[in-house]
Amino acid sequence: MEKMEQLRAFLKISPDDPFLKHALALEHIKIGEDEPARQLFMEILKLDPLYTGTYYHLARLLERAGERDSAISCYKKGMTASKEKGDQHAYNELQAAYEDLIY
């Protein structure tokens, strides 16, 4: 919990920092709190649609929640964003997870 409190304190200083929001979302996932993580991931993508790492984690969360179609859509959006950003590594990870889900 200390790490979460530190991240929240940093977010008070930089409330729109996608890295901090992403890190906090991952901490929520670690303790089984998917809904706050989901909200943070959605905020990140509103602020920065090219923050490609978020798509993977959000899509995985959606898969766990049984929201297959939403997860597929999220993977596709992430692949598009990764291409636009020129992030081949993120694209490959998203594509592999997408293909695992649909095949």
Description:
- The chain is mostly helical and 103 residues long.
- The chain has one domain: Alpha Horseshoe (Serine Threonine Protein Phosphatase 5, Tetratricopeptide repeat).
- 82% of the residues lie in helices and 0% in strands.
- It contains six helices and no strands.
- Helix 1 runs antiparallel to helix 2 and helix 2 runs antiparallel to helix 3.
- The longest helix is centred in the last third of the chain and has 18 residues.
- The mean pLDDT is 97.
Return the average pLDDT rounded to an integer.
Answer: 97
Strand content: under 5%
CATH architecture: Alpha Horseshoe
In total, how many beta strands?
A: 0
Q: What structural class is derived from the secondary structure elements? A: mainly alpha
Question: Gist?
Answer:
Helix content is 82%, strand content 0%. The protein has 103 residues and is mostly helical.
Q: What distinguishing features does this structure have?
A:
103 residues; mainly alpha
Topology:
Layout: H1 2-13, H2 18-30, H3 34-47, H4 53-64, H5 68-85, H6 88-102
